Amino acid sequence: IKTSQFFAEQKMKSFAALIFLVFVIAAHAHVYTIGSRGPNINSPDYPGSNPTGPCGGANLTANNPVNVTSGQVFPVSWALWVNHNLPPEVPGYVQFSFTHGWEVDTTPIILSPNVTITTQPVNYYFIQNVVIPPVKDVSKGTIQVYYNALNGEPSTYWQCVDLWIAPY
């Protein structure tokens, strides 16, 4: 009986720690994309408002790139952790784009229409399907997820997913 009581107490402590972590994450993050590079949502550096550009404005080493094929429909899972655009604020938007390579200073290719942000719930994952652009050879690429809250400076938040792309 004491063993089962011990395990029940441990489960409650774990559950309380998980709830606390969810509130900490919600307080520090604005947009998150599953599979994105550096810093992750548990890091105190994740992410400050970043007007300088994608993924911290730095060319970073890829973080576990995802293998995809040119022309493939790729589901991007993303969530708002803070919604800056609840009424009466002006609507913001999330944009999905692609750049060749893992560098951030190349011109992005827009992959889908912008998603207008107004009353979307926080801590809820949405799926945005995008088509991986064509490549001739095995290539590096990055999907950029950009949240522009349009509520003053700075109000932009980035997440990037690195890819290895096989030609179709």
Describe the structure.
The chain is an alpha+beta fold and 168 residues long. Strands 2, 4, 5, 6, 8 and 9 form a 6-stranded mixed sheet that branches. Strands 1-3-7 form a 3-stranded antiparallel sheet, with no helix packed on it. The longest helix has 27 residues, at 2-28. The radius of gyration is 18 Å and the shape is elongated. Mean pLDDT is 74; it is low at 13-29. Helices cover 16% and strands 34% of the residues.
What is the topological layout?
Blueprint lengths: L1 H27 L2 E3 L32 E4 L3 E8 L11 E9 L8 E2 L4 E3 L7 E7 L7 E10 L7 E11 L2
Parallel strand pairs: 2-9
Antiparallel strand pairs: 1-3, 3-7, 4-5, 4-6, 4-8, 8-9
Q: What is the first-to-last residue Cα distance?
A: 60 Å
Supply the number of helical segments: 1
Reported for the largest beta sheet, the result is:
6 strands, mixed
Structural class: alpha+beta
What's the helix-strand series? HEEEEEEEEE
Principal-axes shape call: elongated
Beta strand count? 9
Classify the beta-strand content into a percent band.
25-35%
Give the helix proportion (percent range): 10-25%
Task: Report the uncertain regions.
Answer: 13-29
Arithmetic mean of pLDDT: 74
Rg measurement, Å: 18 Å
